[in-house]
Structure formats: structure tokens, C-alpha cells
Amino acid sequence: MTRPTKTKAMERLQKKLDAIPELRQLRYDSPKFEKWKRDTRIAISNTFDNKSGHIFEFNNIKFSLRGLLPGVPGSAVQTTYMQGLESAASLLESMIEEVEDYWDDKDQGQIPSSAQANGRPSSNQVFVIHGRDEGAKQTVARFLETLGLEPVILHEQANQGHTIIEKFEDHADVGFAVALLTPDDVGSLKEEKINLNPRARQNVIFEFGYFIGKLDRKRVCALIKGDVEKPSDYDGVLCIPWDDPDGWKMRLIKELKSAGFEVDANRAISS
What we know:
The longest helix is centred in the first third of the chain and has 29 residues, at 74-102. It is built from ten helices and nine strands. The chain has a five-stranded parallel beta sheet, sandwiched between helices. The protein has a two-stranded antiparallel sheet with strand order 1-2. Strands 6-7 form a two-stranded antiparallel ribbon. It is α/β, with parallel strands linked by helices and 271 residues long. Helix 1 runs antiparallel to helix 5 (74-102).
């Protein structure tokens, strides 16, 4: 991710801070507030490195009393909303001061990501993209652990009140991704309804493409189970067949090593 200039970062955060006085005149359930909250989250994420904790602090601000027992007075709900705006204002002011005091425009450029310039990943986390095949998911996750790597499985992470896409983005800063293309769905061209082909689930294809764009193809590996239809744009690229009981492990290790991970192939033999 390219870090913005000092001036751009301050302008971006100041714009969100300047919108708060108007929000104080609105109700807690205003669509304009919901838009501001989402836009502010995006602004913070695209200004600071996700590992810095800034977005975590913003997400922890309580703007509502959702989840409490029915009958909570409207005044109490509105009070929580106003207190949340005050906390957000203080946090944004602190972020602006941080940029002003500690950023140097000469530092503008690439924020170190999980794919380092030296070819070695800074993170030992591997995102496991999966569908409904629980057995395949667990087998790959446990195998990665035997190699000393940390598998990231989205539904095992805390929700923290986020939407699915927000939760996905929060945990996507990894060094590698493994996509399990398992035959969970079927589909065909509209005019060929009777010829249904086994396909991976839509979330798998979406996340697969996301990580190819984020990490580069050499840091994303597809394990394909059975005669699953591959995405057309990915056709021609070799996938690792899952049906080879042990062969996929050695081939996955080869891909991990090529991506800069220091893994011991001997661990594959005993796993």
C-alpha cells in the first residue's frame, strides 16, 4: 500500500473531523452518520498501516446501544451516540497530531507489506480460502501449523461488530494464501442448463481473485479437488491436485519456499 503524503493524510483525516459538528445535530440512526462512519474507517485504513492499531481503536468506539434489552430510553441511546462522536473526534485529532509531529514527507512511498522487497514475507500467516469442505480446510490448516506457519481462517476470527467484508479486509494482511477449490456448487452457461459443472463457492472465487491482486500470483496457490471448473481468467495456470494424498503437501511446500518462506520439508513427511 502506498502511504499518502503528510499533507494528504492530514487533509483526509481533517475532513472526517470537520464533519462531526453536523453529525451532532442528527439522530444516532441517521444514514448520513452511517456513511460517515464507513468513510472514516476507509480513510484511516488507507492512511495508516493496518497493523498500527489505529483502525482497531476506531472500530472499538461505541456509537450505539444495539444488543441491549428492549426498552432502553431513546435519550440513553442518543447520549451514547454523542459520546461516541466525542471519542471519534478526540481520536481523529490525535491521529492528525501524530501525522503532523512524526511524519516526514521524505518517508512517502511503499509501506512495507507482507510481500517485502527482499522477497521474504514479513508475516508467517497464510490465509486459507475455503468453501464447505470442512475436512479439506482442517487438513490444510493443520499441515500449515506443522510447518511453523499460522493459518488464518476467517470464521474463526472475532467479528468485532464488523461486516463480512470489513472482517475479511482486517485479516487479509498475510504473506500467502491457499485457495481450496472444492466442488461445493454447480453451474453452467445460461443456455446450457442441463450441463452443470462442479464449481467452488462464489466467496472462494472472490477471495481467490482478491489475493492474486493483493499479493501477486506467486504468493497464492490453488488446491483443486476433483473435476472442479476453474475461473476462466485463471485457466491455463497449474493448480495442485488435492487427490494426490501426499503429493500436494510437497508441492505446496515448494510454492511456499518460492515465495520466500523458510519451511522444512521433513515436517511434511511426519505430518
